Amino acid sequence: SAERIRAGLGERLGLAPAVVITDTFGRAWRSGVVNVAIGCAGLPALVDLRGTPDDRGRILEATVVALADEVAAASGLVIGKASRTPAALVRGLAFRGPSLPARALVRAPEDDLFRSSPLEAISSRRTIRSFGPGGVPREVLEEAIRAACTAPAPHHTRPWMFSVLESPGARRGLRAAMAAAWRADLERDGVPEAVIARRLARSDAVLGAAPVLIVPWVRFEGAHPYPDPERAGAEREMFLLSGGAAIQNLLLALHAQGFASAWISSTLFCQEETRAALGVEEGWRALGTVAVGRPPEGEPPPRPALALEEVARFL
Ligand SMILES: Cc1cc2nc3c(=O)[nH]c(=O)nc-3n(C[C@H](O)[C@H](O)[C@H](O)COP(=O)(O)O)c2cc1C
Predict the structure, then answer these.
(1) Helical pair 138-148 and 229-256, crossing angle rounded to 10 deg
(2) What is the pLDDT of residue 43?
(3) I want to staple 280 with a disulfide (CB 3.0 to 4.6 A). Which of 24, 58, 268, 275 is the partner?
(4) What fold, for 118-298?
(5) CATH of domain 2-111
(6) Would you list the domain boundaries of the chain?
C-alpha cells in the first residue's frame, strides 16, 4: 500500500515523501488513457476549495481538486507505458491539509453517473405512492416531458400535451373536480357513503401528497378516417398507445433523474371535468394523472417474479 511504501522510505532514507500509486485509466467522456491515483499516502487525495475565493474574488461553490490524480497524470509523462520506469519523483508540489486516501476519489454510489445501465434504470422504476419532503425542479419536469415526446407516434404526429400542476391551487382545483365527479358516479351506482368517503380518501392520499401533478393528454388529430368501426377504432387506439408510450418515457425520465412517480387512472374517468378544471380544449383526452415527487426513505419492495414463458411466445 502507499502507506507501507511511505513508511519503508521513511525507515530507509529518513524522510517520508508523499506516495501516489498509479494506474492507467480510460475516461467515460474522453478517449485515451491517463494515469490516475489508486493509492496515496502523505497528501490529500482531494483538495476541497469550496468556500474559498477564485482569482476574481468569487467564492468557489463546487471545486474539489483531485490532487492525487493530478500528480498521477503528471507522472505518466515520465513513466510512460513501456519504459520500465517504476517511479517518478515530483518536486515542488505545494499542498495543505491532512492526508486523505485515494478511496476518497471514488464517487459514492448515489453520485456515480454510470452505475446504472439503461436496462437497470428501466427495470428499477416502480410506482411510488408516497413522497419524501421537497419539490421537483422545473428543469427536471421539462427534461421528462422532452423524453416523453420522443415516444413513437402514428403518422409522424406529436399527439401529446402535458398539463403540469406545480401550484397548490391548481392541484387542489383538479383534485376537487375529480373527487366531485367520482362521488357523483359512485352515488349513481348506489355505493354507501362510508365506502365513497373511504375510496375518495385513499385515492386523494396519493395525489394530495405529491408536490407536482402532471396530466398527460392525447388527441386524435391526424388520424386517418375510415368508414368502418373496426379500422376507425384501431386508428384511435394507435394514438392512445402512443400516449401510453409517452407516459412510460415520462416516468422513466423522472426516475432517471432521481424522482418518484405514480401513474393514477383518475382523470381517465372524468374527461369533461378535467378539461374544465385545467382549461383544456375539446378534442384532448386525459390519460390519468402522474403524481411526481422526491422518493421517500427506503427501498421500494422487490418486483414480483416474472415467468417469461407466461408473457413471451417465441415462434
Ligand atoms: C393506466 C394506468 C392506471 C393506473 N392507475 C392506478 C391507480 O389508479 N392507482 C394506483 O395506485 N396505481 C395505478 N397504476 C399503477 C399500477 O398499479 C402499477 O403500475 C402496478 O401496480 C405495477 O407496479 P410498478 O409500476 O411499480 O411496476 C396505474 C397504472 C396504469 C398503467
Answers:
(1) 140
(2) 95
(3) 275
(4) NADH Oxidase (3.40.109)
(5) 3.30.1330.100
(6) 2-111, 118-298
How far is residue 42's CA from residue 239's CA, in Å, rounded to a whole number?
A: 64
ipTM of the complex: 0.96
144 phi and psi angles, rounded to 5 deg? -65, -40
Q: Supply the residue whose CA is at minimum distance from atom 12 of ligand 1.
A: 264
Q: Hey, which of 175, 249, 264 would you mutate to test ligand 1's pocket, going by the most ligand atoms within 8 Å of its Cβ?
A: 264
Nearest ligand 1 atom, CA 287: 1
Mutate to test the pocket of ligand 1, among 265, 267, 311 (most ligand atoms within 8 A of CB): 265
Burial call 218-235: b when 16+ CB within 10 Å, e when fewer? bbbeebeeeeeeeeeeeb
d(C-alpha 47, C-alpha 66), whole Å = 6
User: Going along 145-226, which residue ranges are E strands?
Assistant: 160-165, 212-219
Q: Which residue has the least CA distance to atom 20 on ligand 1?
A: 127
Mean pLDDT per 10-residue interval, the chain, length 315 residues: 95 93 92 96 95 96 96 94 91 89 90 81 94 97 98 97 98 97 96 95 94 98 96 97 98 96 96 98 98 95 94 97
Q: How far is the CA of 120 from the centre of ligand 1 (A)?
A: 20
Nearest protein Cα to ligand 1, atom 19: 127
Q: Kindly state the cell numbers that stand for 40.
A: 496515496
